[in-house]
Amino acid sequence: VITNATELVRALERTLLTLANVQLPPGTMEVCRDEVLRADVSAHIAIRSDGHEQIALLMVTDDVARALVRATSGEDDDSLTADTVAELLNVVVGSAQKGAGYQFSLPVAVRAPGHQVKVLSAGRHERFLTRLGDGVLRLHLLEGTIQATKSGE
Amino acid sequence: MKILVVDDSALARGVIRRTLAAHAPGTQIEIVEAQNGMEALAAARGGGVDIAFVDWNMPVLDGVSFVRTLRAEGATMPIIMISAISDENKVVEAVQAGITEYIEKPVTSQALWERVKEFIK
Lengths: 153, 121
Known about the structure:
The complex is a heterodimer of chains A (153) and B (121).
Chain A: H1 5-20, E1 30-31, E2 37-49, E3 52-60, H2 62-73, H3 81-95, E4 103-104, E5 108-119, E6 125-132, E7 135-142, E8 146-149
Antiparallel strand pairs in A: 1-6, 2-3, 2-4, 2-5, 3-7, 5-8, 6-7
Chain B: E1 2-6, H1 10-23, E2 30-34, H2 37-45, E3 51-54, H3 63-72, E4 79-83, H4 88-97, E5 101-104, H5 109-116
Parallel strand pairs in B: 1-2, 1-3, 3-4, 4-5
């Protein structure tokens, strides 16, 4: 498993710099305690090692998703937002602990304005957040199950 | 030169496409894209593929299964795997399946070109 969510944060910093030429200075990703998790685009990946299971979750607002598409592909293509967030998380999880023997699933992405991701069962849950322009990017590592629901549900 | 690019992510396929366009502008390149190993097998069996870029984690048929099947059918073209997986045992598995090079994501366009330019005639 990924032993510490800060490994994910460092991997996110490396990935954004490599693929999007976006530099997040150290400390940009802050620990947060938000219980209600809303986003326009989210992606999650299940991680498994020696019977332990975790979920990595990347959530962004629409403006951040569009900026990431522009930065990684040079295009203004709305249809690429879910794919881009999913692929970024895929690379982040894969490179978080280089050489470690964990397996991870294909990313599952959701694109729906203001959708909520609910954590259905309690367990270790590490939460990081940063603001990019007027938007928000969240990166979580948790044990348990999650459910994406429409806005207002 | 016919190049097969196999990845379920449009972003990842785009990185390879743009790298080749930027660094090999004088080379006649036809790029064929596939979103999983099964689509890639169909494309490769059509013939004429000179080099393949392949992801590992994909739906329907993963990259290593694709490589294993293609090699068993006698294909000899260079196959470059570009994957987020960094587990050393998994990399060995990919090499044993028959890949030519293994490149870890994330990779910049420049670094990718340095690793693959010898295969682009």
